[in-house]
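User:
Hi there, any thoughts?
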Amino acid sequence: MADLKAVRHQGFTFDEVRANHAIDFFERFLRLPDTTGPDGSPRPFMLQAWQAFIIGNLFGWIWSATGYRRYRNAYVEVGKGSGKTPMAAGVGLYMLLMDGERAAEIYAAAVTRDQAKILFRDAERMVECSPGIAAKVQRTVNNIAYGQTLSFFRPLSSEHKGLDGIRPHCGLIDELHEHPEPMVANKVRAGAKHRPQPLFLEITNAGYDRTSICWQHHEHSRRVLEGTEVDDRWFAYVCALDDEDDPIEDPRCWVKANPNLGISIQETYLRDQVSAAKSIPAETNTVLRLNFCVWTQSVSRFFDMPKWHACDATVAEADVIGAACYAGLDLGQSDDFCAFVRLWLLEDGRKAVKARFWIPQKALELKPNRPYTEWLRAGLLEVTEGDITDYDVVEAAVAADCLASGVRECAYDKRFAQQMALHLEGQGITMVDMPQGFQLNEALRWLSDAVVNGELCHGGHPILGWMAANMVVRHGRQGEVRPDKDKASEKIDGIVALAMAVARAIVTPQDAATALLAALGASGTVSPSFWADPVQGTSYSVQIVAPPVNLTSLEQLLNTPVRPSAGGEPVALRSFASLQLRKIPANINRTTLQPTTTVLANVEGRDLGSVYGEIAALVDQLRPRLKPGNRIEFAGQAQSMEQAYAEMLGGILMAAVFVYLVMVVNFQSWIMPGIAMGGLPVAISGGLLALFATGTPLSVPALTRRATVEAWILPPGVSDREMSPGGAMRFACMLMTSICRATS
């Protein structure tokens, strides 16, 4: 309203026609794939009042002198699930089709390629179910093109190598709170220096990092809205609670951060989120941040201590005999706590815990406020002589306990326990280097669930309980958690050791190997499955294959779900393992004691023949430089292709000779058959021309594998004939017979 009063002084005006044009584009042309009408067709994208307010402002305000849009930058912060991403996708399509910009470049930008594709995928799906738009654009992989203006819409991320060469007309920057650095936002803006009216729309939830680009833009938006800063090119729409609001206790304030409440997000969902935040303290900050737009600190207390104290049951020694046992070893600094925790998984679902702690004598004097003396008298704390912890004493105790309890694996942090781990391995104990940080996310959540469900039995150990009360976690960008020793008020070493034991207990190396084998191959390699056709009685192999496009980086591979063999929910591979990229020979063969190097080449986007031809030319250049006795051979589909084509060519020549001789006998002449056979090159050329015109290649599978041959290429009666391996010769003979019948 203040802008409407100040238009004469500021040089801009509000054009209702332009505002309504943009709003009408959504409601007349766009369809939402996730919502359907009574007839089952997608519903029109009917903007809610808050969305219409944003769209109308972005496209309605113009500079009076030039007619260009007033706003260059827009910041929208609303609760999770409010529909901000589909709205941004619609803005991108409007800028692509309706803005009149020549060679417009529209980008859905995010930190990762996968995140950028979420917004872009919404745009693709809207195009698919919007007939009026689908008819105007051309869609290819990761690209929506509008040929009339030479414009396109693509996803873009910080993983993309071409950030510096873009010239965006519109940048849709998704989930700004997940951007650890301003690189994507800054480079997208920098590329638009020659555009007359670019638009950069940032959509986000609240975050926690108050040094991030998102916090800076949040604060700038707040100051612009409050009127303490003037920025006529900056549009801000920030949904936030008032200072006195408590969304955990008062549902009446929920709508302030969730303008689409009751439409795209339901109250039942928010009630479930709030319930989880009440039951699991570690979830509170995440719920406040994502669902109620509260900028929280990145650390939060992890355990609900009343529920922790309720898990003080002691498990009898007889109950743990024969149960699977895992351990975690957390060696502190030389003058600090050392913690060793064992975890038993009992058949009745209980998780038994026993912990041991050591400190040096000097620590008793340095920390007089801690109840060391009381713990020492109770036999719960062991003190080693001297100013630093005697690791030999710790090692002897750990070895004895591992062997006595039959510990399957003992996890440790190699930063402090590498030497001790080598000694313990020498005594037959399986030691596993446990990655720290967010790799403990799944273990911590499993541990939290065990406390909430009352399954943990820690025996009321006071030192472990003290550390549980000190335990705080730091939240990552994806909601994952890790222990935060720096932010903890006191020591948490025992809980970290317990989490390390849990990490080894919930999944085994065999589980991980099975999951990776299935992800990189197919489910049939580890768990063959078959389906019997009830009509025909034929059995078919059923396999689940991970799309190769989803496994193009180590980060994506680390997200492989691993299902524990002992039962329970799948965990991500990154939770207990790390991956390193190394160069090793793909295959090492030895033929007659001679070294053989195998070079593997996969073909994508090109035909096998042209790639093979280029590689063969390079090999021919290399052959003169080979040492005596060395050779280069081709294998795989390239070799099969050559063999198949050689057989087909030989078959055609033999068939030609055979048919010619038969015709000589029939015509009693050598000349007439020759004239008839003269049409053979023309027939073959016509066939090849037809293949070229229809874009049909002579593929290797068609010649060397089982493939059904269509009726139009074979003589009558063999329409369903199948070609078996090595059948290229028979195919050539049948082809020649068909051609000769046609020419005669």
In short: Confidence is low (pLDDT under 50) at residues 702-744. The radius of gyration is 35 Å. The CA atoms of residues 287 and 319 lie 39 Å apart. DSSP finds 29 helices and 30 strands in the chain.
